[in-house]
């Protein structure tokens, strides 16, 4: 078909119409929303919605994936508010740019939450490095007029002022060249918990990254690290460096393996003075004194290198800066993974335990040195426990007697374990008024369990009244004479009184063990008395021989102190016999007129135990236990030589053998 012929005017009109159409098409095709349309394809559906409608982003989904990808710093909504405007960019990049780097202050901890898969950043700016120098300067300036303020003040006071300043400048120059030492430490205070009962494998731990160049060291940015990433060990991480520049720290939380949920809470601190947090994996700093079915008694090592009474007063006047934490053994214990972390143990102990700990300062376990004393109660019977002694962190550094310094973040000592007794027939008593050295489990019964004071008073008053009778007799015999008329050159009445008291308290207040404890040095008591369930001991052995050697003998079917069976009624129990030295000592120290002598032969064996360098085989004042090792509190194991003595029971007290 032939085209119609057009006039020049018509053809010009057509040309401009075509051009206009093309223009329109081109204009339309350059509209921005077409690019948007094309770019939107790879973006996840919910992001498209947000960017198209400009709505605020809903809170993070319950699985925490949004927050965790972006390190929200715990400030909810910050990411949500910014995200729509930058929907075309990589969200994680923006998230990281918003991630703050927190500024640390010298010797102050910063606390932080961390979700799984996130990293938190910190910086100790170099201005903080100088904090120490400035402090030293100001101390020095004061030191010139106030010498005791600074350690070296004494010397500087004598010097000319200019000389001291010169020294300071030299020191400062040295410091600038070498850089300051910075101690970085961190403690995990809270961690994810297993959501299945039987957990295998270790608790996931945080990781510490340190750099002086990389401002955000972490698992995604490992360039310029000063050291390989440091994995927290049982909730503790540390690092030391010399530097003159800013120190950047990253603490990264791993993503959680199957079976764990929750998040972390931690403390990080950098200091130019020394580690803010610390632990001592080599020392326990504590001894076990004794346990019963619901409690355990401990004492610490000496708190001071001096046993002067003002040291004791100093320690006993302010609250004890130590805390004891205890956790029952089990497949999972909340202290697992936090064993080197003071804040971790503290939080877990408070959150998961009914255990109560009362503490005081005592000087009874040897030579008047002040020691901390802890009574841990509300324990379950026949159960293993793990304990930790910790030094509370405080603004003021604490100097330990071994020379260590504990700063604000506290210190955890090495863990220790113990097992509570199974029976209610023994109960720990301590801090008696008269028998002040008694601190161990004694025969008791359920009726005395709720009131330790009642049990203490019963024993203590009995011992005190026996002692008064003895003391009166002693006065009549030999004491108030001139030294030439003394009964002995080596011993006097003071020695006699002390030794009698130590012996009396040990014999009247026996040390009690579970019936089914098996050590062969323990001695059966009350074997004809039924147990709580009505059965009697050795029910399977009714032989005449057993009746004659055991069942019918007072040494086994009664307590040595009749008051115990009459008033306390503990049922069958075992006794850790008093050490024979206690008896030898009174024989040696007291006037012969009193007629003291110690039983020997079989009678002696059934009344007294003999000391052993490795095991606590007999009881003596101040006996304590270190791990499986036995120590004499008053150096009592340096056994005094026993004199040869003759038969018969001791005068002044009826004893059943
Ligand atoms: C020593 O320093 C303390 C604290 O700065 C101040 O209170 C005291 O007055 C000073 N003593 C002397 C003698 O300057
Ligand atoms: C971390 O602290 C422990 C115990 O205080 C110490 O033995 C260890 O040397 C320290 N590690 C570093 C890298 O400083
Ligand atoms: C952990 O998981 C359990 C069960 O799966 C759930 O009940 C609990 O709320 C979770 N805890 C946290 C902190 O997410
Ligand atoms: C602590 O010491 C014990 C034994 O000395 C050792 O088995 C354990 O690994 C140590 N723990 C840490 C965190 O160093
Ligand atoms: C732990 O519990 C005790 C007693 O209930 C309370 O006084 C103390 O403030 C608690 N400490 C922490 C860290 O929660
Ligand atoms: C703490 O004591 C209460 C009441 O005596 C008891 O119900 C609870 O089970 C105890 N908790 C633990 C962890 O023993
Ligand atoms: C415990 O016993 C003592 C002495 O018998 C008595 O004074 C005290 O009131 C008792 N305490 C309780 C809580 O029963
Ligand atoms: C012996 O002397 C002491 C003080 O030295 C005194 O307390 C005591 O009553 C005196 N005893 C006798 C029997 O004189
Ligand atoms: C007894 O002897 C001790 C030294 O063994 C001495 O310190 C003490 O003063 C003496 N006591 C009397 C009353 O003489
Ligand atoms: C003591 O008896 C309890 C049960 O009453 C038992 O669990 C425990 O293992 C026994 N201890 C010893 C040392 O036999
Ligand atoms: C031994 O003593 C028990 C309890 O008193 C008694 O039941 C038993 O018959 C005695 N055995 C002999 C052989 O007498
Ligand atoms: C006594 O101590 C030694 C040395 O530590 C040890 O080998 C032994 O088993 C202990 N005896 C008992 C019965 O525990």
Textual characterization of the structure:
This protein is an alpha+beta fold and 657 residues long. The chain has 4 domains: 56 residues, no CATH class; 153 residues, no CATH class; 140 residues, Immunoglobulin-like, CATH 2.60.40; 214 residues, no CATH class. Helix content is 31%, strand content 21%. It contains 18 helices and 29 strands. The strands form 9 sheets. A 5-stranded mixed beta sheet has the order 1-3-9-6-7. Strands 12, 15, 18, 21 and 22 form a 5-stranded mixed beta sheet that branches. Bound molecules: 2-acetamido-2-deoxy-beta-D-glucopyranose (NAG) (12 copies). One 2-acetamido-2-deoxy-beta-D-glucopyranose binds next to helix 11.
How is this fold's topology laid out?
Blueprint: H1 8-29, H2 32-40, H3 45-53, H4 65-70, H5 78-82, H6 91-98, E1 101-103, E2 110-114, E3 119-124, H7 126-143, H8 153-158, H9 161-178, E4 180-190, E5 193-194, E6 207-211, E7 230-231, E8 236-243, E9 247-252, E10 260-261, E11 264-271, E12 278-280, E13 286-291, E14 296-302, H10 309-317, E15 322-328, H11 342-352, E16 356-362, E17 371-377, E18 384-391, E19 398-399, E20 405-406, E21 411-413, E22 416-419, E23 426-429, E24 440-443, H12 452-479, H13 493-508, E25 511-513, E26 522-525, H14 544-551, H15 554-557, H16 562-568, E27 573-576, H17 580-589, H18 601-607, E28 623-626, E29 629-632
Parallel strand pairs: 1-3, 12-21
Antiparallel strand pairs: 2-11, 3-9, 4-8, 4-11, 5-10, 6-7, 6-9, 13-14, 14-17, 15-18, 16-17, 18-21, 18-22, 19-20, 23-24, 25-27, 26-27, 28-29
Bound molecules: 2-acetamido-2-deoxy-beta-D-glucopyranose (12 copies).
């Amino acid at each position: 078909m032939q085209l119609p012929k057009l006039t020049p005017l018509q053809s010009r009109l057509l040309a401009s119409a075509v051009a206009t159409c093309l223009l329109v098409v081109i204009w339309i095709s350059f509209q921005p929303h077409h690019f948007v349309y094309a770019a939107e394809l790879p973006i996840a559906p919910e992001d498209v919605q947000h960017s198209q409608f400009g709505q605020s982003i809903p809170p993070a989904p319950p699985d925490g994936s949004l927050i965790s990808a972006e390190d929200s710093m715990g400030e909810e909504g910050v990411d949500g508010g910014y995200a729509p405007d930058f929907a075309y960019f990589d969200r994680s990049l923006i998230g990281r740019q918003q991630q703050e780097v927190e500024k640390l202050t010298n010797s102050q901890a910063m606390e932080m939450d961390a979700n799984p898969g996130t990293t938190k950043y910190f910086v100790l700016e170099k201005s903080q490095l100088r904090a120490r120098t400035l402090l030293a300067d100001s101390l020095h300036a004061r030191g010139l007029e106030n010498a005791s303020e600074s350690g070296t003040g004494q010397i500087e006071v004598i010097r000319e002022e200019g000389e001291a300043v010169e020294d300071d400048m030299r020191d400062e120059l040295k410091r600038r060249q070498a850089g300051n030492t910075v101690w970085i430490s961190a403690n995990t205070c809270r961690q994810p918990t297993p959501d299945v009962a039987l957990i295998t494998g270790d608790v996931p731990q945080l990781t510490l990254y340190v750099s002086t160049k990389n401002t955000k060291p972490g698992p995604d940015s490992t360039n310029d690290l000063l050291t390989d990433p440091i994995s927290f060990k049982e909730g503790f991480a540390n690092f030391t460096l010399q530097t003159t520049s800013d120190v950047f720290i990253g603490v990264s939380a791993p993503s959680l393996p199957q079976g764990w949920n929750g998040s972390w809470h931690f403390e990080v601190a950098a200091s130019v003075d020394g580690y803010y947090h610390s632990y001592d994996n080599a020392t326990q700093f504590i001894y076990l004194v004794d346990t019963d079915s619901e409690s355990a008694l401990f004492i610490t090592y000496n708190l001071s290198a001096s046993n002067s009474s003002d040291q004791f007063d100093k320690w006993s006047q302010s609250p004890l800066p130590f805390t004891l934490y205890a956790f029952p053994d089990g497949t999972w214990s909340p202290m697992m993974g936090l064993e080197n972390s003071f804040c971790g143990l503290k939080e877990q102990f408070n959150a998961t335990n009914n255990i109560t700990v009362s503490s005081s300062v005592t000087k009874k376990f040897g030579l008047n040195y002040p020691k901390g004393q802890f009574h841990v109660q509300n324990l379950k019977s026949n159960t293993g426990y793990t304990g930790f002694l910790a030094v509370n962190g405080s603004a003021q550094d604490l100097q330990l007697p071994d020379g260590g310094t504990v700063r604000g973040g506290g210190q955890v000592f090495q863990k220790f374990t113990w097992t509570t007794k199974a029976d209610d027939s023994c109960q720990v008593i301590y801090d008696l008024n008269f028998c002040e050295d008694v601190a161990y489990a004694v025969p008791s019964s359920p009726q005395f369990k709720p009131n330790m004071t009642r049990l203490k008073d019963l024993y203590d008053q009995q011992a005190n009244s026996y002692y008064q009778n003895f003391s009166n007799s002693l006065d009549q015999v030999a004491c108030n004479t001139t030294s030439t008329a003394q009964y002995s050159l080596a011993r006097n009445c003071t020695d006699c009184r002390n030794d009698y008291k130590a012996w009396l308290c040990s014999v009247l207040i026996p040390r009690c063990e579970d019936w089914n404890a098996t050590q062969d040095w323990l001695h059966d008591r009350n074997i004809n008395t039924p147990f709580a369930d009505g059965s009697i001991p050795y029910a399977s052995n009714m032989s005449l021989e057993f009746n004659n050697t055991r069942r019918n003998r007072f040494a086994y079917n009664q307590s040595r102190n009749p008051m115990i069976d009459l008033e306390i009624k503990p049922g069958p129990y075992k006794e850790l016999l008093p050490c024979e030295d206690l008896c030898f000592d009174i024989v040696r120290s007291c006037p012969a007129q009193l007629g003291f002598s110690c039983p020997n032969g079989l009678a002696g064996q059934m009344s007294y135990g003999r000391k052993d360098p490795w095991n606590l085989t007999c009881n003596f004042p101040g006996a304590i236990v270190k791990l499986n090792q036995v120590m004499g509190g008053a150096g009592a194991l340096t056994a005094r030589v026993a004199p040869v003595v003759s038969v018969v029971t001791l005068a002044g007290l009826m004893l059943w053998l």
